Amino acid sequence: MPSARAVSAGAHSMLRNRVYTALGLAGLTLATIFLAPLWLFGLIFGIAASIGAYEWAAFAGWTETKQRLQYVGALLALGIVGMTQAEYWPQFIVSVGVLWLLGFVSILLHPKFSWIYRKPWFVAVLGWVLMLCAWLCLVTLFQQEHGRWWLLWLFVLTTATDVGAFFAGRAFGQHALAAKVSPAKTREGAAGGVTLVLLICAGGLVFAGAVDFYTAIGLTLVMSLISILGDLFESLLKRVSGVKDSGDILPGHGGVLDRIDSIVAVLPFLVWSIA
User: Fold this and answer.
1) Distance of CA 8 to the CA centre of its chain
2) I need a surface site. Which of 120, 161, 175, 234 has the fewest CB within 10 A?
3) Mean of the pLDDT values across residues 180-209?
4) Which residues contact 172 (CB under 8 A, 6 or more apart)?
C-alpha cells in the first residue's frame, strides 16, 4: 500500500502537470484566436475537433486505430460539406442546442434512458453532429464583430468553471453533484466554479461595456451551468460505454475531449445568444 508521502507526491506531480499543460494550451489558444487568419484558425480547431472525434469513437465501441481514423475521416468529410452550406448553419446550431438540452435531461434521469447511449450507431452519429457543430460555431464566432473577444471569454469561462470546481471540490466537497454519473464531482465544487466565473466573466462583460449588469450575470451563470453539464455528459458516456479515460495526450488532464467537452456544449448556446 502506498505511503501517505507517496500519495501526496503523486498528487502534487499531477497538479503540476495539470498547471503546465493548462498554461501551454492557454498560450496556443490565445495565439490562435488573436494572430491566426480565418483559414488557420479553422484548421487548428478542426484538428482539435478531429482528435476529440478520435477519442469519442471509443464511446461507440470503436477501439482499433483504423476504425477511429475512419470515423475522423467521416467527420472531416462532413466538415468540408458543412463549410459550403453556411446558409444552413443557424438552423443546424439551434437544432444541436435542442439536442444538447435532451442530453442534459438524460443526465438527470440516468440510468432510465441511458440505454440509447449503448447503441453504437447513435453514439457515432451524435459525436459527428456535436463535433461538427462546435467547429462551425467557432468559425461563426470568429467572424462576428468582437468575435475574437467572445472566443476569449468562452475559453476563460470554461477554464474558470473547471478550475473553481477543482479547487473548491478538493477543499469543501462533500455532496455528490450527480452520484450516478460522476461521484467525484460535488455540489460544493460546482458552486465554487460558478462563483469564480461570475467574478471573472460577468465582471469582464460589465467592465468592457459589452452588456448590462443583469445580462452579464444571466449569460455568465447560464453558460457556466451548461459548461458543468457538458462535462457531466462526457462522464455519462464514459460510464455507459465503460471507457475510463477518453485519452492521455494531455498530461494531468487526460484526453483532448476532457478539455473541450464543456466548450463543445457551450458553443451552440453562446452563438445563439450573441450572433
Assistant:
1) 29
2) 175
3) 94
4) 186, 188, 189, 192
Residue 42 one-letter amino acid? G
Q: Is the pLDDT of residue 10 over 60?
A: no
Angular region, 59: left φ>0, alpha ψ -120 to 50, beta rest: alpha
Confidence (pTM): 0.90
Q: Contact, 56 vs 245, CB < 8 A?
A: no
CA atoms of 7 and 84, how far apart (whole Å): 52
Closest CA to 104 of 230, 238, 268, 227: 230
The predicted structure's pLDDT at residue 258: 85
The label of the residue with cell 469582464 reads 204
> Could you give the C-alpha distances from 214 to 160, 190, 202, in angstroms and in order?
20, 21, 9
pLDDT of residue 67: 93
Domain locations in the chain? 4-274
Q: How far apart are CA 275 and CA 271, in angstroms?
A: 5
Cell of 73: 475521416
Pairwise CA distance, residues 268 & 137, whole Å:
6
Are 133 and 75 in contact, with CB atoms under 8 Å apart?
Answer: no
**Contact at 8 Å (CB) between 46 and 83?**
no
Q: Which helix (H) or strand (E) holds 176?
A: strand 176-178
Q: All 3 cell numbers of residue 148?
A: 475574437
Q: How far apart are CA 12 and CA 35, in angstroms?
A: 34
Secondary-structure breakdown of the chain: helix, strand, coil percentages, each rounded to the nearest 5: 80, 5, 15
pLDDT at 25: 78
Task: Taking residues 15-27, report their average pLDDT.
Answer: 72
Which residue, among 191, 178, 263, has the nearest Cα to 223 in the 3D structure? 263
Q: What is the mean pLDDT of residues 8-13?
A: 53
